[in-house]
Amino acid sequence: MKIESQVLKKLLTLNGEKERLKELLRERLNECGWKDEMKSLCRSFTRKKGRNNVTVDDLVHLITPKGRAAVPDSVKAELLQRIRSFLHSTAL
Questions:
Q1: Cα–Cα distances in Å, from 81 out to 41, 64, 65, 77, 88?
Q2: What's 43-69 look like in SS3?
Q3: How far apart (Å, rounded) are the C-alpha atoms in residues 2 and 4?
Q4: Who's near 65: CB < 8 A, 6+ residues apart?
Q5: Where are the beta strands (DSSP E) in 1-92?
Q6: What confidence tens digit (pLDDT) does each residue in 39-57 have?
């Protein structure tokens, strides 16, 4: 499975599909309010701990699991469908 994953990543990158998928993800997350939700979470955490007592690592540790869990299923499904369509079009 690891080799297949590496091949997929390489194909997505070479064909520019990776950048298109990233842009689609940014748009969808912005549309559904995910970005604002994460920003609010960071601000709240920073206020609570004190601005000078928070590191980027602190924010990453806080946001990563919550951010992944907060991505709507519809966005995940759309991205998965786009990847499947890409694979089908490249005959893999």
A1: 30, 24, 23, 6, 10
A2: HHHHHHHCHHHCCHHHHHHHHHHHHHH
A3: 5
A4: none
A5: none
A6: 999 999 999 999 999 999 9
Contact 2, 60 (CB under 8 A): no
C-alpha span between 32 and 27 (Å, rounded): 9
Cβ neighbours for 58, distance < 8 A, ≥ 6 positions apart? 45, 49
pLDDT profile of the chain (92 residues), mean per 10: 79 90 97 96 95 94 95 97 90 60
Spell out a b/e string for 14-25, using b for 16 or more CB atoms within 10 Å of the CB, else e.
eeebbeebeeeb
